[in-house]
Request: fold
Amino acid sequence: MAPTETRKTGSSTKAPTVKKEKIFHPNSRKADQLNRKENRKSKLAEQAVNRTKKQASFVDFFGFFYHALPPDESVLTLDDLHSLIRDVWLTRNDAEIAAEQAARRKGRPKSVKQQKLEELKLRETEEYRTGMEVPDLTHTANVALMRQWDEADFSFTQILRFIRVTSVKPDLFLVTRPGKHHALLEKQSGDNHPAPGDDAPMLMDPVEDRDVPLAEEPLSRFASTIVGMDGPS
Reply:
């Protein structure tokens, strides 16, 4: 007679033990270390988000000048560049501001959208007055490089030439970033007698209060601009 097979009842393996989470006193050194570590993570994450937003904003700004390049191989004059900033860039939201103003009923406050657009225009107008950094569209080699941009790569914009212009002295400009691309470096080293508009920059005298943050400026300084944008209710 064949022996009967016996089966063991129950499991022979032990259940996995769950490691208990350590609980630290709120005022302990370990708890303070953990808090600092989490705070650092949060700050780094916030900085990364702000950096991404800043880069996206700059790409939009640079894209405006990219699409303003002449269709042919020519470059802009300094007067053309000022007209582009003054008449196109700074006024790009005027239609939306006017629409919000027209939609506002008499006696009602401005919409949040209108306030933000007016504040943006005010900041940019003041930046243009004190000195706005823009890609140099008057420089032949720089314009040729700009035409190669893929409209997305932020790092590409960092190798180009930028100048600072101001509405106070529109006939002057300052080269703030001469450019890192080899075409620009060769141009700088090879030109002993550069032509105006290429590598013969006129140094722009700094506006006396350009380094003062707008937040520290008295409100009365912007009163005329605010009234001009708002108009009668």
